[in-house]
From TrEMBL:
Pfam families: LptC. It comes from the Bacteria. This is LPS export ABC transporter periplasmic protein LptC. GO terms for molecular function: lipopolysaccharide transmembrane transporter activity. One of its GO terms (cellular component) is plasma membrane. PROSITE patterns: PROKAR_LIPOPROTEIN. InterPro entries: LipoPS_assembly_LptC-rel, LptC.
Amino acid sequence: MKQRLNHILKRIVTAFAVAMFFSCNSSFEDIRKIDEPQRFPVGVAENFRLIYTDSARIKATLTSSLSKDFSNQEFPYQEFPEGLKVDFFDKDKNKSTVTADYGIIYQATDMTDLRGNVILHTHDGKKLETSQLYWDQKNKWVFTKERFIYTNPEDGTIMNGEGIEFSQDFDEGKGQVRAYKVDGVKDIEVSEEDSLENIEPSGENEG
């Protein structure tokens, strides 16, 4: 009888210890959440539009359905959780466009980080597709280290690779595309009725 009583007491003590452990663990999680800095925007804007100018000339425009201003943070930034569109204009007012599912501008560095289904269309018909693209506003430079697909109708090719960079102005002499790792180049087979969105690769030439 005494042995059975001791066994019951041990089970009670064990159950109590387990309950205390989970209770303390839950409290610890609550305290940790309290200690974490809460990030709330100082401003939220719908149908947002931002114009970048240089010497009274429009260089780019950024539009988004939703913008959140986090300039109250130690490292201020502006977030576009529902995606955005950026139109670039060269000196001849030719327009190139990039779209993405998500974007963030770091105000201290003038660096824009575009993520998710990033697609760039240049004014002369070139197309770049990647998962992430950076826009350096100060140096007027666009680059990514991620995998990409680059369509160039001028030489009739589709390039696959990893890491690419070029000037945002796409000016002659500055607009040369520099790819760091190229897996292969495919020839483009396209009829007169086809658009860039419906280009089908045909024949592969590894390079």
